[in-house]
Amino acid sequence: xxxxxxxxxxxxxxxxxxxxxxxxxxxxxxxxxxxxxxxxxxxxxxxxxxxxxxxxxxxxxxxxxxxxxxxxxxxxxxxxxxxxxxxxxxxxxxxxxxxxxxxxxxxxxxxxxxxxxxxxxxxxxxxxxxxxxxxxxxxxxxxxxxxxxxxxxxxxxxxxxxxxxxxxxxxxxxxxxxxxxxxxxxxxxxxxxxxxxxxxxxxxxxxxxxxxxxxxxxxxxxxxxxxxxxxxxxxxxxxxxxxxxxxxxxxxxxxxxxxxxxxxxxxxxxxxxxxxxxxxxxxxxxxxxxxxxxxxxxxxxxxxxxxxxxxxxxxxxxxxxxxxxxxxxxxxxxxxxxxxxxxxxxxxxxxxxxxxxxxxxxxxxxxxxxxxxxxxxxxxxx
Length: 382
What we know:
With 382 residues, this protein is mainly alpha-helical. 69% of the residues lie in helices and 3% in strands. It has one domain. It is built from 15 helices and 4 strands.
């Protein structure tokens, strides 16, 4: 396996390339009028360019080229069809998203793009062929079912990232945390002989992390540019490719202790719990509302609810980032320690975060000094 320095170098190059390309993308968006004006369901207050996808794609391609150039990932590039297929799928997904950013297209058209991207992954071998049912058995999927499962996984993750991208830096940070966790988890599995050296999972994950870290300074509140559908959908398909490579292609059992069940495909569901729960609730909510199509946008996502609860923009982002970090720690601690004693502190931290989320707005409201400060903010300066 490549060393830690190699991973840091690849991630760093992807981050620097994305950071440099993002201002160019912002100027291009401003020149051609690809601007997101504040709307009824939007949180931002000023028109903001939303063409960050091409800058993120540039960082991905530069980072991939650098990984090939240094030779540490020669085993991954020895099966060129897989990594090239992932890049083609990312380009397809970014292209569909950018088209939607420039001139909105229908939901079925975007889903068709996701199906094409998922099909590309399946054709090159990045496919979900192993399905582990927790506490039951391992199911080996036929080629047809494997292709279908891969496409569905791409559709789920692409929509999850797209829907959670509603606040400045929210999706960027969540994906950065999740992909970093995937890198660490994949390296652990590889060191234990569960993953082959040719597996591209860790390389894809570190490229995702680098791209997000490079984009975040421009996307943090107040955002100078949004990633748009081009960036969000591309991150979704890349996460799908990385997670499928980690957990969907091995039937080896890997458990840190007898009572904590580790199924590699189950890990992404835990780490990406925030966006996945959000998209599932959105589907259920819209199905339960008579006459409301599933594709209709609304303002009832997790971040919207937290804002209505009384949290500010930055605090909502911090809360959801922290949840992703806690879920990641919940996964990684037993994997590396071989013990389940990390569950207790993670659970305590989760309870504390819940209490903070629920009680902080009320404490702020009931604080007389805080109310005085808020009242004074409306007075003219002397």
